[in-house]
Amino acid sequence: MPELPELVVMQEVLSEKIVGRTIVSATPFHPGVLKTVDPGLDALVGKHITTIARSGKHLIFTLAEDLHIVIHLMVAGRLILCRSDTKATKASAFLIAFEDGEDLRLIENTKTHRASVHIVRSPEDIEAIARMGVDPLSDVFTLAYLTNYIKRYKRQLKKLLTNQSMIAGIGTAYADEILFDAQLSPIRYGTTVTDEEAKRLHQSIRSVLQWALSEVRAGAGGATLAPHKRGFLKVYEKTETPCPECGTKIAEIRYAQTKTYYCPRCQAQGALIRDRRSWLTR
Fold it and tell me: Where in the chain is the domain with CATH 1.10.8.50?
């Protein structure tokens, strides 16, 4: 799933490539991808994209003050630019055609189609955006904000970091990296975190996201909108490989289709964390 670093780069690349282009048509290929009916698709025709913004894990394409296309890529979605005469495949979910002969296409290479497109008069009309938390790279995301948040709820740190209504844009991959950098267990309750640990966590959130953003931007090279490789990450999907800090094998916690990666020594005092339905489902 694209998270904050990938989406920032997508925003940058798309802003360079499609702002100012005029839309001639928009076509949904899967019945569930378009989540709104008013304004309709016809409202997009003849309009051009003026700006592209990001809110959490949503990309917002503004056509007018009261007309926006909002896309959430979910787990498997990606955006590509291609010629309009390129044949649409089964993976095509939504298409925006420009008058210059190119399309912006939403692609989902999965049997479970979860990506969404909203056409709205205001991004705030979408509930997930209306109740979205602060951006972790913004000035609003202070140490005081984080400390107050994690100490207010009796939840595990992994769950707290990925709660979009409080901190917007962090998903499972970067939550794992942040907690590794801060040397905190993913199942540690926020209410038990000391002031010094909260300060360390706040610093790790900022530094890991900035580092990842630089890596993703360099890997994209300003040319690709395809899913970015995350080979630079230190623990995510690195099960059984040596921890870059202590050499202990990276371990994972599994539940359904969700996995959490961590270093037993750096984050859990040398102990393996058992898979437990209780903490993973709260």
Answer: 143-281
Quick check: 185 and 179 in contact, CB under 8 A? yes
CB contact at 8 A, 262 and 239: no
Asked if the model's pLDDT at residue 208 lies above 90, the reply is: yes
Report how far residue 241's alpha carbon sits from residue 177's, in angstroms, rounded to the nearest whole number: 15
DSSP state of 99: T
What was the pLDDT predicted at 209? 98
CATH 3.20.190.10 segments of the chain: 4-130
Q: Give the Cα separation of 117 and 101 in Å (integer).
A: 22
Cite the DSSP H helix spans in 192-262. Answer: 195-220
Query: 15-39: per-residue pLDDT in tens?
Result: 999 999 999 999 999 889 999 999 9
Contacts 24+ apart (CB under 8 A), 105-109: 105/79, 105/80, 105/81, 106/33, 106/71, 106/73, 106/77, 106/78, 106/79, 107/77, 107/78, 107/79, 107/80, 108/30, 108/74, 108/76, 108/77, 108/78, 109/76
Report whether pLDDT(180) > 80.
Answer: yes
Residue 219 banded pLDDT, cuts 50, 70, 90: confident
pLDDT at 276: 58
CA dihedral 214, 20, 125, 165 (to 10 degrees): 0
The CATH-assigned architecture of domain 143-281 is Orthogonal Bundle (1.10)
User: Fold for domain 4-130?
Assistant: N-terminal domain of MutM-like DNA repair proteins (3.20.190)
Per-residue b or e along 177-206, where b marks 16 or more CB atoms closer than 10 Å to that residue's CB: bbbbbbbbbbbbbbeebeeebbebbbebbe
